[in-house]
Amino acid sequence: MQVGNAVFPSAEQAARFFGAAEDGRFVMVNLLKFRAKAEYEDGSDAHLTGAEAYARYGAAVQACLAAVGGRQVYAGPVTGLLLGEVEELWDMVALAEYPSLAAMQQMVQSPAYKAIEVHRTAGLAGQLNIRTRPIGR
């Protein structure tokens, strides 16, 4: 299994993801890896860690999720690995529930989201986003 963290999807990945058949509510599993130091394009806040920069995003994204009918389900640090092997553990896991693909796409294209995305970009070294849906739906 090859694992590759990224901060943004390629155009092809985004088109495939948002072009999939709509099937209602889903939970996005976010496996997050932070930069040691935040990297803002304008050089500001160089004293912050990547986790601190991402925490700014995490606090502000709650309103963006709520605006499209979504919610944060869980967020917490990765503290250990019981089974399997990875070269390096992710730093944090976050679960976000969305009512639909269209709602998520609306959120990530909104001006409010675009305004806070700078903190996400400054803090993340990379991540995996895994879309899941409840069994029996």
In short:
By secondary structure, this protein is α+β, with helices and mostly antiparallel strands.
List the SSEs and their pairings:
Layout: H1 11-18, E1 26-34, H2 50-67, E2 71-77, E3 92-98, H3 101-109, H4 111-123, E4 124-132
Antiparallel strand pairs: 1-3, 1-4, 2-3
Task: Describe it.
It is a single chain. The protein is α+β, with helices and mostly antiparallel strands. The chain has a single domain (34-132), classed as 2-Layer Sandwich (Alpha-Beta Plaits), CATH 3.30.70. The protein is built from 4 helices and 4 strands, in the order αβαββααβ. The protein has helices spanning 11-18, 50-67, 101-109, 111-123, and strands at residues 26-34, 71-77, 92-98, 124-132. Strands 2-3-1-4 form a 4-stranded antiparallel beta sheet. Helix 2 packs antiparallel against helix 4 (111-123). The longest helix is centred in the middle third of the chain and has 18 residues, at 50-67. The two termini are 28 Å apart. The model has no long low-confidence stretch (mean pLDDT 93).
What is the fold-level CATH name, i.e. the topology?
Answer: Alpha-Beta Plaits
What helical percentage do the residues reach?
Answer: 25-40%
Name the shape in a single word.
globular
The gyration radius over C-alpha positions equals 15 Å
How many domain modules?
1
Structural class: alpha+beta
The CA-CA distance between the termini, in Å, is 28 Å
